[in-house]
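Slide 14.
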Amino acid sequence: MKRGFTLLELIIVVIILGILVSIAIPRFTGGTEKSRITEAISLLGSLRPANERYAAGNSGNYLVNATCTGLDTTWTTLKNFGTPVCTDAANGVITMTRTGGAYSIQINATGCLCCNNLVGTPCAGYGMAVCPACQ
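Slide 15: predicted structure.
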């Protein structure tokens, strides 16, 4: 004889699945966010030497431009970050802000990376020093 689940058994299974999902989703999204940060760091790492070359040809002044146009390199804008912004002619800071504005990542001429918490995103939880850690 085939036995089906009772209503109580189904409710218990749904509760157990709900608990498992509530544990798994934050772990999955945390890893996903780390990969997004890595993608931005990779682009910043390739823009920094281009900014160094720019400064070498401009009396030591780094590019200051809202879209970093003027560097001798090309890049594709990332899906999860906005266009790089070049600021600070003295320190060669390049900033990329996470789509939605949760945080931004910066690199300066010395290669120091840091993260700005803009709406409470825990940069340190992603292994990033909080700005201005190296400026």
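Speaker note: Residues 7-56 form the longest helix (50 residues).
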